[in-house]
C-alpha cells in the first residue's frame, strides 16, 4: 500500500466549498502568493479571451474567524464552450510548466466540470455553452489551486475530505431559479460517488467549480479526521457572511501518527492439536520454517474433554498459505487449518557484520539492525549463532558477548 509523509484534510462539512474558498485556504496555509497571482495573470491573453485580469487577495473576518478571501475579475471577449475552456486550462497548465500531477489535476477537473454541464443540458462537450463557469473565475481557480498545491507539494500527500455541505433553499442563476445544490454540482458529486449533506443554511454552499476540484483532489472521504499530528491550518473565506456559521473552508496539513512505520499483509494459519506427540510437533515446526514460514508458535491449551493440547500458529506470506497448509496437514495429521488475513506494522531489517575487539583479538559478528522507514535505527541485536560461537571461543558468557557486540554496533551506526 502507498505510504504518505503528510495528510491534507479538506474540511467542507460546515460551509461547503467553492474554488475561491479552496484557493484562499491554500494561500492562508502558506502557498506562494506571487506564484499563484502570476499564474492567474497569464490568463490575460487574447487567445484565451480575457482582458484586464485583476486579483484581490485580502484577509477578512467570517463570524470571528480570520480567513483569506480571493476574488478574480476580468473582461471576457466571448463566452466559452466546453472545448474552449478545456483547451484554455490545459494549455495554460502546460505553459506554466506545472508538475505532471498538477497538469493532470487541472485537466481532470475542467473535464469533470464541462462533462457535468454537457450531461445535464443534453449536449456534447463541444456544443455545451457555459454560463457562470465560462467566466474567468473558473480557469483562475483551477489553475490557482494547481499552482498552490504544487508549491506546497501536496500532490504527494494523502488527501482526505469530509462530506460536503451543499446548503439548501432556492437561488437564481443563468437558467432561472433552481434549488441547491445546483444541477451541475449534484451531477459532479453523483458521478464520483461523493457524499453530501444538506444545510446548514438556505444558500448555495457548493459550487460546480468547487465540487469539480474537490472530487479530483480527495482520494477518500471521512466524517472524522484521521489520526495525525496537525502541522498547519488555513482558512478560505466565502463571499457571504452568515449569522448561523462561519463561512470558511478549513484545510489542515498533518503528519500521520504511523509515519515511521512500514506495513505489509500476511496470513495467520492455525490448527488445534491434542493427539500429537512432542517429537512430531517439534519436527513440524522445523519443516514449516524450512518451507518459508515467517514464524511458528506453540500455545498450550485445553481441548474437548479437558485434554491438554497445543495451538500451532504460523505467520506466512499470502502466496505461501496453501503450500504451508499442506505441509502442516502432512506433518501433524490435522484435519483442518484456519486462515486469517492480517496487516502488520514492521521495521526495516538488515543483517550487518561488525568487527569487535575481545581480549585484544579482532573478531567479527553479525547483528540484526531494525530501522524506521526514515532510516532511524531503533534496535541492534547480535545474531545468536555468532554470539554463541564467540562465547565458546573466548570463554566469556553469552550475555557479555552480546553486550560487547551491541555496544560496538551502536557506536558504528551513530556515526552514519
Explain what you see:
With 416 residues, the protein is of the alpha+beta class. It has 3 domains: 7-256, no CATH class; 262-346, 2-Layer Sandwich (Alpha-Beta Plaits), CATH 3.30.70.1380; 348-414, mk0293 like domain (Ubiquitin-like (UB roll), Roll), CATH 3.10.20. It contains 11 helices and 18 strands. The chain has helices at residues 19-28, 33-41, 82-95, 100-121, 137-151, 183-191, 208-217, 278-290, 321-332, 384-394, 398-414; strands spanning 7-11, 50-62, 65-76, 158-161, 164-165, 170-173, 176-179, 196-197, 220-221, 228-237, 248-256, 262-273, 295-302, 308-316, 338-346, 348-358, 361-371, 377-382. The strands form 6 sheets. Strands 9-4-1-11-10 form a 5-stranded mixed β-sheet. The radius of gyration is 31 Å and the shape is elongated. The mean pLDDT is 91.
What characteristics describe this protein?
416 residues; alpha+beta; Alpha-Beta Plaits; Ubiquitin-like (UB roll); 3 domains; five-stranded mixed beta sheet; four-stranded antiparallel beta sheet; 11 helices; 18 strands; 32% strand
Count of separate DSSP helical elements: 11
Number of DSSP-assigned strands: 18
Helix content: 25-40%
Mean pLDDT: 91
How would you sum up the major sheet? 5 strands, mixed
As laid out across the biggest beta sheet, the strand order is 9-4-1-11-10
Please trace the helix and strand order, writing H or E for each element. EHHEEHHHEEEEHEHEEEEHEEHEEEEHH
* Parts with pLDDT < 50 across at least 5 consecutive residues: none
